[in-house]
Amino acid sequence: MLQTRFTKLVGVEHPIVQGGMQWVGRAELVAAVANAGALGFITALTQPTPEDLTKEIARCRDLTDKPFGVNLTILPAIKPPPYAEYRAAIIDAGIKVVETAGNKPQEHVDEFRKHGVKVVHKCTSVRHALSAERMGVDAISIDGFECAGHPGEDDTPGLILIPAAANKIKIPMIASGGFADARGLVAALALGADGINMGTRFMATRESPIHQLIKEKIVANDERETELIFRTMRNTSRVAKNEISTKVVAMEKEGAKFEDIRELVAGARGKMVYATGNSDEGIWSAGQVQGLIKDIPTCAELISRIVREAEAIIRSRLEGMIVQPQREAAE
C-alpha cells in the first residue's frame, strides 16, 4: 500500500483522486471510486439546484460508507450559480473534503474550514498554488497543460509544473493532467507530489455515467485528439477534437468573439454528447491522456491495477537499477 501525506490528510487508502467533472461526477462513479479506496468528488454544479446536490450526496452515501467529497468550481458566468447555497448544502450534508477550482476561493475556504471541511484547491500555476496556500487551503491539486478542461494560460506541462510547485508548496499536493496508469503515479511521486488526480481515465470506466460510445471514443482516440478552444479569449479549455471544436478554433483564428460561438459551445449540447453517444453533438472535455487509455475497466480494477503496478515499478524496476559499486580487489 502506498501511503502519502495526502492519503493521511483525507483518510483514504490510495493516493488516487477522481476530481470534479461536469456532467460526469455523479454518485455511481464517486461511490465506486470510494469503495476502491481512492477519493472521488461529486460535481456540485452538475446538479441543477442545491437541493438536488443534497439528494445526490445522500444517493452516494447509499452506495458507499467510505470517504468522498464534493467539487465546487467557481468560474465567471453571465448568471452565476448560487454558490453560497451549494456551499451550505455541502456543509449541512456533513461532507468532510471539498475540491475547489476557479476564482479565488477565500470566502468558501473560510466558511468550509469553519465547519471542519478540508479544502483541496485546484490550480494551474505555482503562483496561484502559493496564493491558495496563503488562503488556508489544506492541499493543492496542480494541473498541467496536458489536462482536460482549463489548463490556464501559461502552457506549462506537468513535468515542469509539478516539481516547480513541489519546490515551494509546503502542504500536500496532488498532480493533475496526463495521468492514467501506474507509471504516471510513480512519476508524480518522484516529482514531489503526494498523489494523482485523474479525470479522463475515470470517464472510461464501467461505472462512469456517460454513454458507452463516448467511452469507446476515448479508448480509440490518441494523444493528438484534443483541441484548445477559447485561446483568443484567455480562457483556454482543452476539449475532445470533433467537428464542433475544430470549427470553433477556426472561427477564433478569424477573429470570432464569444457571442459568435456561444451556441456551438453551449453546455446543454455538451451534456447531450454524454447522453446520446454522438461525439460530434457538442463540446466535451478530454485530455491528451486519451493516448494512454486502452480499456474500460471497473473503478476497482483500475485502481487496484495502478497501485499494484506502481508498487512493482518501485520495488523491482527502480530498485533494480541501483547497483552497488564493487570494491576494488585488495592488492
Automatic annotation (TrEMBL):
Keywords: Dioxygenase, Flavoprotein, FMN, Oxidoreductase. The keyword Secreted does not apply. SUPFAM superfamilies: Inosine monophosphate dehydrogenase (IMPDH) (SSF51412). GO terms for molecular function: dioxygenase activity; nitronate monooxygenase activity. It holds the Pfam family NMO. It comes from the Bacteria. The keyword Flavoprotein applies. InterPro entries: Aldolase_TIM, NMO. This is 2-nitropropane dioxygenase. It comes from Bradyrhizobium shewense. The lineage of its organism: Bacteria, Pseudomonadati, Pseudomonadota, Alphaproteobacteria, Hyphomicrobiales.
